[in-house]
Design goal:
With 89 residues, the chain is mainly alpha-helical. Helix content is 82%, strand content 0%.
Length: 89
Amino acid sequence: MSDLLLACIYFLAINILLFILMGLDKYRAKKRLWRIPEKTLLSFGILGGGLGGLVGMLIFHHKIRVLKFKVIYFLGTIVMSSILYCLIF
């Protein structure tokens, strides 16, 4: 399998997972249940899941006012884009 295909599968999986975690954390916040630690959400974001995190923030209206989430998810999106760019060209 090519490196580009593996990277695409990885980034797709981590973005979907972070999106689901953002929705789950918002649901748990509304129900006053145990929450997903911020460290977990931020870790997935910086490991390339930033796009899923940003979309999750907008769709679920979750963590929108927290600057560190915006910054980390933006950086994660840049990491993902840079790696894919290097693999393509």
